[in-house]
Every structure is written in C-alpha cells, then in structure tokens.
C-alpha cells in the first residue's frame, strides 16, 4: 500500500504525539509493535523491591502492569506530551502509579527522586537531547539507571514516515550524545525482532537498549 506525503506526515505526527480521533488506534498499534522493546528495557533496568520508576513517553500504558509486577512495592511515574495518552494510561487504574504532562524538556520533579528511568522510541523526538539527559540525571538518585531504547538508524531509514520530524540514531551517535552529559554509558545491547511496520508490512527490526548510570 502506497501512502501520500500528507499521510506520511500525519503518521509521523501521530507517532510523536498521538491525538484526536486516530490517536487511540495509533497508540494501540504502538503498544503491540513496541512491547518487545519495552520488555527488553524493563529487563535491563533490573527492577528490585521498592524501586521508584520514571518513564518518558509511556503511551497508552498497557505495558506498565509488567513493570509493576517485576518486584514488590514498586512505584511508577509517567511523563507524556500527549494529553490523550495521559488519559489512556490513567484509565488503567494501576495502583502506585501517577501520570503527568510535560513539555518534553523540563521534568517536573525534584532532584534525586527516582532510582530508575526508562524511555522507548522517544529519542527521535527530543528537542534538546543533552538538556533532557541532564534533567533525567538530576531527578535520579546516585547510582540510578536510565535505559534508552531505540531502533537503529539503518532500520528506521527504511520506513517512509521517518523523514518527517525524526532524528535517527545509531550506536555511535548515542554514545556521542551520552558523552555530552554527566551519565556513564555502561551497556549497549542490540536485539532483533520481526514486527509489523506502521505501513502494514512485516520487517526485521534492529534495536538497541542503552543503559546509562548516574
């Protein structure tokens, strides 16, 4: 199926910030196609009892139950730029969770509040990546982990909508970004999976889980 440029632009816009009549369906599709990446990220965080988790860009939140079941007495706070996604996540009524809107740049929490942080498939849309890394660093406790999971540039370039507003990453570019922050990059793990693309085709996705430590 061929898409027009306007359709590709709308698809890219919805992926960065689901909204309107199509937003819920797009979010469900993102959950289905991203769950493997989310699970890899959760595993990399090595969540333990009493951890406090921050997630940037949680989408509809259907993966959050997996986070909460990983250990005992875990708390979770989610940040979204999409009002619709905040509402969708809140509707799940998961105990010990809270959801907040933010502008994608300033994290509305006090310093050293969280033990772990995570984000999946949001780095392409960061307006000021170094500043946002510094913000995550600020709100993490000493020794805290931040996992950034992203699909590699070589895969993303094959998707036609990524030419509209996506800033693509490979491992080298991610490493250079982290070097501009106070974080230490302690692990880069590459994985592949077969997924249905947003253009409704089965493709092999190469993605990376980067683990940073304060």
Explain what this protein looks like in three dimensions.
The chain is α/β, with parallel strands linked by helices and 214 residues long. It has one domain: Rossmann fold (3-Layer(aba) Sandwich). The protein has 7 helices and 7 strands, in the order ααβαβαββαβααββ. Strands 3-2-1-4-5-7-6 form a 7-stranded mixed beta sheet. Strand 4, helix 5 and strand 5 form a beta-alpha-beta unit. It is globular, with a radius of gyration of 16 Å. It starts with a helix and ends with a strand. The relative contact order is 0.16. The mean pLDDT is 88.
In short:
It is built from 7 helices and 7 strands.
Task: Write a concise keyword list for the protein shown above.
alpha/beta, 7-stranded mixed sheet, 214 residues
Distance between the termini: 45 Å
Level-1 CATH class name: Alpha Beta
What class, by secondary structure content?
A: alpha/beta
Shape: globular
Q: Per CATH, what is the topology?
A: Rossmann fold
In CATH, what is the homologous superfamily? Vaccinia Virus protein VP39
Mean pLDDT: 88
Strand content: 25-35%
Strand order of the largest sheet: 3-2-1-4-5-7-6
User: What is the percent of helical residues?
Assistant: 25-40%
Order of SSEs, N→C?
HHEHEHEEHEHHEE
Outline the biggest β-sheet: 7 strands, mixed
């Amino acid at each position: 199926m061929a898409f027009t440029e306007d359709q590709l632009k709308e698809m890219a816009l919805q992926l960065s910030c689901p909204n309107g009549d199509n937003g819920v369906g797009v979010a469900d599709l993102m959950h289905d196609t991203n769950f493997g990446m989310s699970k890899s990220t959760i595993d990399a965080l090595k969540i333990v009892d009493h951890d406090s988790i921050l997630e940037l860009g949680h989408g509809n939140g259907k993966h959050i139950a997996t986070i909460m079941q990983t250990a005992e007495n875990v708390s979770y706070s989610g940040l979204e730029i999409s009002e619709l996604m905040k509402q969708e996540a809140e509707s799940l009524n998961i105990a010990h969770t809270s959801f907040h809107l933010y502008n994608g740049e300033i994290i509305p929490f006090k310093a050293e509040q969280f033990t772990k942080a995570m984000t999946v498939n949001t780095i392409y849309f960061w307006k000021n990546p170094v500043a946002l890394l510094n913000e995550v660093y600020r709100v993490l406790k000493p020794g805290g982990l931040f996992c950034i999971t992203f699909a590699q540039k070589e895969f993303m370039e094959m998707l036609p909508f990524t030419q509209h507003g996506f800033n693509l990453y490979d491992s080298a570019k991610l490493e250079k970004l982290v070097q501009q922050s106070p974080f230490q990059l302690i692990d880069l793990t590459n994985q592949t999976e077969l997924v249905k693309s947003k253009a409704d085709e089965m493709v092999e996705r190469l993605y990376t889980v980067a683990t940073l430590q304060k």
